[in-house]
Amino acid sequence: MEKVPENGSEHILVCLSSSPSNRRVITAAVKMAEAFHATLTAIYIKPTNYDSLSEKDKERLQNNILFAEQNGASVTTITGNDIPNQIAEFAHISGITKIVIGRSGDKRQHFRSISPLTEQIILKAPDVDVYIIPDSAADLKHQKKTIHRTDLMRPSVKDTVITVLLLLASTMLGLAFTQFGFSESNIITVFILGVLIISATTVSPVYGVIGSLASVLLFNYFFIEPRLSFHTYRPEYAVTFAIMLISSLITGSLANRLKWNARQAALEAFRAKVLFDTNQLLQRAETSDDVIRITGQQVIILLDRDIAIYPLAKDQKLGRKIHFVASHSEGSPTHSDADGIDADEKNIAEWVYQNQKTAGFSTDQFSGSNTLYHAISMNGYCYGVLGIYLEGKPLEALEHSVLISILGECALALENLRNASEKEQAAIIAHNEQTRANLLRSISHDIRTPLTSISGNASTLLSLDKQLDDETRKQIFSDIYDDSEWLIDLVENLLSISRIDNGRMQLHLSAENVNDVIEEALKHLDRNAVQHPISIRFSNDFLLVKIDARLITQVLINLVNNAVKNTPAGTEICVASCSEKNYAVISVCDSGPGIPDDVKPHIFEMFYTGQNKIADGRRGLGLGLALCKSIVEAHGGTISLTDNVPSGCRFTFTLPKEEVNVNEYANHPGSGR
Questions:
Q1: Entry pTM
Q2: Which residue from 248, 349, 464, 548 has the highest number of Cβ atoms inside 10 Å of its Cβ?
């Protein structure tokens, strides 16, 4: 009994074809992958004569590819004619452990015949297990019919005209050479050149053969004695005709093969470039809308068909369709948000989103639709649905393979953006949690002192009121008042800074005189401000700023109170204003001990108090200066800290100036005039 390997150790490869039995081969590979818990890959070797396949075979092949995708297979397309070697090489490179392939009833006729495909794969990949799924009688009948079908394409008027004109031109040029006495070898070269041009310019290889035969007949008729007849007096011309025919056939065959290879190389290079450009563009995309737009444009460049994309909305449902219109003339493809799809088509897109499988045109689900829908998904998460308007023309195998790669790149880019967004949200949540923890820790530690003082003083008044003298009672009342004022300021700062950070605070802007705002702020300082001489240095200029006067007043109060709390009694505090270009500059200077250089970068951070010896005071939570910074920046200004020579600190903030007519200001209600 064969041992089932561990998950992920097996990699199964199933070979795709246009055979009716290929679906049974795919089904067997899917069941095997489920049994072994293996990765499933499907491969299609696209032959160089792919265009000569019938439309029925192409449609059957496309259905087989879609069937493999719907069952979880990753589809790869390789162009070439050496199928056994290419399958074996792909198996070695990709780490394939098992190959599942169908086998017809064809047998080797004699010892020189080419071995069947299955035998060649077994010989070229001896280290890989090959599982052969036999065909049914109906499949054998189809294969025999396919084997005997010629690869000749239908003749076209254009190719017929080209062939006739080139043969005529070769004959006329040969007749001209005859007039100049050129040898017959030169005329033969002219006809061979004509055959080469015919093979290179016509689509069907049939015209190369026709040109070869016609060249021999024309050479015999016009240039061999007796002329204007198909007889000849010299039997050695039979050898000449044979060599000429063989040379023409070989030349035409080589020209056709080179033309085909060149066309295939150009197509593959174009599709590879589309895929490469898609990767580069998506790497630079910054939003999901950019990713959807780039993907739509690149798919149109690849397929030249109209498409529709239903991106995933914020409510985890399909959003409104974005319609990308292929530009069949010069210019870039365009897109529109107009809904041009009926309800049935929207239902198909919803089904594809829910099941993350292909549906629509020529699939098992909603096959009557004229649109093919693919899920843009990765790792079980669907980011949207892409619909392709096929108009009855299925995609080629290579086109479909590149399309799947583009959708994979799109899903990867959207997943990267999603991961980045989730990481950013997680960082914000972690920061908020840290901030909340700091706040609770600071409040629990620093509020305890004033609350204990208020409670103790109140208890003293209640129990010893009659024993206390007036001076002691007055001091207790003063302490209770100071502690309650500190708590009120703390709550106001907390509420203000939370509103600004959450974007809920609305600025009530009006034109104000800077000097009036400073004077108003100095009326509401801490009661300990009387211990410091406070000087004011107003600018000679008439400074008008458009501000919320209440908030800027709070900034000045916080800055001056900060200087009062952190400088020795008796030291001077100076408030000054001046004008610099388009800004009013306001500064608050003190003559205290100053702030160490290692603390300055953190002085405006929330909850930073410098070990409670600077910033907002001995019992501060580090909110005052953070609040000042938020208010000033909300007004479009800046705030900074520098040293005040010879000692102390200088807090400076700027506010944009407002140009207002003097007469208008004179009538302003808040001007005081």
A1: 0.51
A2: 248
